[in-house]
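call fold(seq) -> tokens
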Amino acid sequence: METGLLVMAFLPGDTLLFTAGAFCAGVQNNLGQTADLNLTVLLLFLCIAAVTGDSLNYYLGKKLGVKLLNFKIGNKTIVNPKYIQKTNEFYNQYGSKTIIIARFLPIIRTFAPFVAGIGNMPYSKFTRYNVVGAFIWVFSLVLLGYFFGNLTFVKNNFETVILAIIVVTLLPIIFEIMKLNFKKDIIKK
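ret:
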């Protein structure tokens, strides 16, 4: 849902993947209950979900992109133009690789396929990058959770680890915002 629907950009995909991987490793909660998920089934379905979500978002961008960008509820647009602008800048800088790179960047992950659809990126090219990006994103984060989820430190500090993942995934965006603000300050002077 995070990558398939523009209004779900706030969902924490990276942390959910890590957590799902940890559950596959049989992490126990505070009550001593073990959460068991099948790793193979999880990886398969999460890859399908990631590819499908981005494909839906691409389709929305292609068919409804301009209309959705201008659609307003009250006096506010449904999609913050700032997010589209940021994603478009990122897309222009990194080209087709954006579809892969964006998987690891919250918010941009949601808007990259939408912008690719608006920008008329050929669907066959988009699909190649979408599948590769989904595979790398899902496997890397789920397997990190799987292999590190049962470490004593991670078990004892699971919430802290999850918060750390959120902070680390937001760092590139925070860095870019700071860099842009720094440039604006220099231009004003």
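Strands lie at 72-73, 76-77.
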